[in-house]
Design brief:
Layout lengths: L1 H30 L1 H5 L7 H22 L3 H13 L4 H21 L2 H10 L1 H9 L3 H13 L3 H12 L7 H4 L2 H10 L9 H72 L1
């Protein structure tokens, strides 16, 4: 049974790899106990920890993609929600703005750069020299708050793209209004940058474990199918011989009977 032994070895090796990965993830999860505490409710620790991991992981990835600090993205989301928006929409708008800002700075190109060259060269330079995306966002909000509704909509559309009207309420108060909304997020609800990094690392490790496990299962299944097919073919071959022998015996017997009748005739 060498094939069966080989399959057992594959499964044991994949199991050891899986357990090693899970142990690494478990150690990271233990370090995330404080993060989980904020998400634990009636569903219990496991559901709370999963929600905490996903939330912190998403914050880290969006903040990095949008070029803002993790504290800023959480506070800006909160202010946007207070103004009637939702986090997913705000994330898309902020990512669009970061791309527009990058085009303006690097190539003096894109819809925002073109719009500002024609309408407000001062704001063009203010955005270009802003030290980060959050500051550029606040400078643009200050400018938008001074515009009549039609021109404000045009500026927001050039900067944020589709769904930019969702920002109307948030930018009406300019920088001061946005900062006030950001400050209303209780500091105790902010997830620290260190905890977010740990959550990202842990979540990525879990995803790698899931991927390796899926590959291991697929590999084991392929090996098992091959072994089963070989076993079936062997069994069929074993049954085929007696059948063929039986058919040959019956054929010979029939020919003998027929021969006997001919002699009798």
């Amino acid at each position: 049974m060498p094939d069966v032994g080989r399959l057992r070895w594959i499964l044991q090796a994949d199991t050891r790899q899986f357990e090693s990965g899970m142990n690494r993830a478990r150690r990271s999860l233990m370090r995330l106990g404080r993060l989980a505490a904020g998400f634990v409710g009636a569903r219990g620790l496991s559901a709370g920890l999963a929600a905490g991991l996903q939330t912190a992981d998403a914050i880290g990835k969006i903040a990095r993609a949008a070029g803002v600090a993790t504290d800023d993205i959480q506070q800006l989301r909160f202010a946007f929600q207070e103004a009637g928006g939702d986090m997913a929409t705000f994330d898309r708008l902020l990512l669009n703005f970061n791309r527009s800002l990058g085009d303006l700075r690097a190539r003096h190109a894109g819809q925002l750069a073109t719009f500002l060259r024609e309408t407000d060269r001062g704001l063009f330079m203010n955005l270009k020299t802003a030290e980060n995306t959050t500051e550029a966002f606040l400078r643009l909000a200050d400018a938008a708050a001074q515009l009549e509704p039609g021109r404000r909509a045009a500026l927001l559309g050039a900067a944020f793209g589709r769904q930019s009207t969702a920002l109307n309420v948030l930018v009406q108060g300019g920088r001061a209004g946005i900062r006030a909304g950001m400050a209303r997020l209780p500091s105790g609800e902010l997830i620290s940058q260190a905890m977010i990094k740990e959550a990202e690392r842990t979540n990525d490790e879990i995803l790698r474990i899931q991927e390796r496990t899926s590959l291991a299962v697929a590999r084991a299944a392929t090996e098992a199918v091959s072994l089963i097919r070989g076993a079936v073919e062997s069994v069929q071959a074993l049954w085929q011989r007696p059948v063929e022998e039986g058919q040959r015996w019956l054929g010979n017997a029939w020919r003998s009977v027929v021969g006997a009748f001919r002699i009798w005739d």
